[in-house]
């Protein structure tokens, strides 16, 4: 079996943990390393949490620490109110025994891309500072990567931080502008699909039943996360945004993708907005000259849920 080589650029984070374990469990995916970035939590915590996840999965792969600040502007406020003080729903797992790789996240991305030209899909599920920096250090990077799958943005639905912006893009809008403008295949999995699929509480119970170690961890960590997403709702629910771009690598037929032009806003009012024009919807030269991306606009809910559960059971 030819495996899909990926690098996971991540800010763990509870849905990051679910996504990382999903990738680890898939026999069709080879995770070359975890590159960490600020986002849900500060970057030092993100790197520590990534190590914890690797050790829990008994997988010895590089974990690198990346950018700690947005490309422009002050330090992030983080999302401890969603992910807990420890990034894992305040379950306080033991400290990792391993060490952070001495390479920065951007250095690791470049080194692996040069080693496996055309083979790696970079899956970015946090703010995009590491990718922007890697592009600045290696302008040929778009020719070296197979594709970039981004969890972020909102094409036709409201944002979750502002009326127009999703958190990962909003957190580092200038970096996102650089990444979205690069000449590579970019597939965006934003709130159009991730907010379209709320998971009922029994989903994480099933993950724990199928995989007591990894699924059990996700179950415990997700209680705090589910509390956040259930506020004001009649039933308890949560969302696992970050696993979607990984699922696309395994089962692209589950997604309906729309091709078009995109622009990322950096002005204060619209910071992080991913404005998207499907092909054929505009004749404006300003738009026709904008970057081309693929946006996930629909997903098969039952089959995606089944894919997550079956992979955790392997």
Explain the layout of strands and helices:
Elements lengths: L3 E7 L3 H12 L3 E8 L6 H14 L6 E3 L14 H4 L21 H11 L4 E5 L4 H9 L3 H4 L2 E5 L15 H5 L1 H9 L4 E4 L1 H4 L6 H10 L3 H16 L14 H7 L4 E10 L9 E5 L6 H4 L2 E9 L1 H12 L2
Parallel strand pairs: 1-2, 1-4, 2-3, 4-5, 5-6, 6-9
Antiparallel strand pairs: 7-8, 7-9
Helix pairs in contact: 1-11, 4-5, 5-8, 10-11, 10-14
What does this structure look like?
With 314 residues, this protein is α/β, with parallel strands linked by helices. The chain is built from 14 helices and nine strands. The protein has helices at residues 14-25, 43-56, 80-83, 105-115, 129-137, 141-144, 167-171, 173-181, 191-194, 201-210, 214-229, 244-250, 285-288, 301-312; strands at residues 4-10, 29-36, 63-65, 120-124, 147-151, 186-189, 255-264, 274-278, 291-299. A nine-stranded mixed β-sheet has the order 3-2-1-4-5-6-9-7-8, with helices on both faces. The longest helix is centred in the C-terminal third of the chain and has 16 residues, at 214-229. The mean pLDDT is 96.
Strand content: 15-25%
How much helicity do the residues have? 25-40%
Mean pLDDT: 96
Net shape: globular
Oligomer: single chain
- In spatial order, strands of the major sheet run 3-2-1-4-5-6-9-7-8
Are there runs of 5+ residues with pLDDT below 50, and where?
A: none
Number of helices: 14
Helix and strand sequence:
EHEHEHHEHHEHHEHHHHEEHEH
In angstroms, what is the radius of gyration?
18 Å
| Overall strand count | 9
User: What structural class is derived from the secondary structure elements?
Assistant: alpha/beta
Largest sheet: 9 strands, mixed
State the end-to-end distance.
Answer: 16 Å
